[in-house]
# Entry
Amino acid sequence: MTTRFLIYLLILLTGFLVGLYNFKKLSSPYKVLTIFLLITFISESITRIFIKEFRNSCPPYHIYQPLQYFFITTFYLSYLKKSTAIISWSWVVFALFTIINLAFFQNVWTVPTNAMLPANIAYVLCALLLFKNILQNTGEQPLLKQGLFWYNTSTLVLFTFNFFCWSFYNVLLKTKNSTLTLSDITYVLNMQYYITTGIAIYLDSRHKQNE
Amino acid sequence: MAQNETLSVRRIPFYLFLILLGFLIFYVYDQVRKKNHRNSDPVPTQAAPINKETADTYITNYLSSQDSLGDAYKLVTKDGKTTLRGFWISRETLKGLDESIRKIDKTANIVGYSVYFGKTEPYDKNKSQALTLVIRGTVPGKAGSNNAKVRSLSGGTDEVVEDKGDFYDSTDPCPERCGEPEPQDSSSLRQQP
# Structure
């Protein structure tokens, strides 16, 4: 395990522990994020076991992808009430798509980029819709002190980059081009995303406490 | 009533999602289990441990048969005079062979190594029987696929194992790199005219 990965796991664990410590004070979307951090921590830890046993970390990502989709969209579901039915049914569609992709296109030993791409589009759309809501309903609290604003910005940045990154990833691997730079940028953006998620959870707990 | 409808709209997809997730987990588990099973399934071989006496006998038999041959037919080391006893293969070589296969297929089931005799120079240029080895890693053959009958270096075909990855040569003949001394019987035999 590299030091970088250890730091990544520590970020996930810290974010989860912050959420767990303040679990009762958190509003329901942030409780979802806390559980999401735990799921991500477990999934990422399992990938190391797979690397050791099979020299391939892809199988856990095939299960993690629909879980990630479920948790992130459930978070947005709390703020995008008008899209409840669409988001709810998209869980089923996405799970079906993941199974079809796994069975016919990208086997368990391949990075499930086909599943990642529509998921990334969905996250970006959710983030944009939420920005629209935030701008339309600006509350008393300054925008920069809102955990939701930071989390949403982070989601928009990470998944916009991820969409372009995973679009080219398998092609670059096939043509034996180095994917290291793309991986490095994704790594840093992922860390930034989970740090922001932890901060957003903390800010929500403080916000509820002040209320 | 309206609230109940909203709840059901959220619940039905949620339960369907859980069912599909369960199926997905089982499918991934099944695929990984199959791969794991394949990886732990060695290709049958007749190779088995032998005791030192048997090993010494085999080596002595070989060396005495070499001694009975004329100089033109003897297997020799690069100097063209010393009888070739064998080769030493470093662990780094085997690791390198493994890694070259892993570059092609990260989850490849490396079941063994093919070792072929080779000669660095053409016979018309160097008539001595100074041999080298050409080594390559092997994975199970893919019966039924396009690679079912893979041509080996010797020209034969094999459905059980398939060579894969880089080729390595052996540059360490015995002598000089010998881990095991020459059997006593053989040396006494070879000293006789």
In short: The mean pLDDT of chain A is 88.
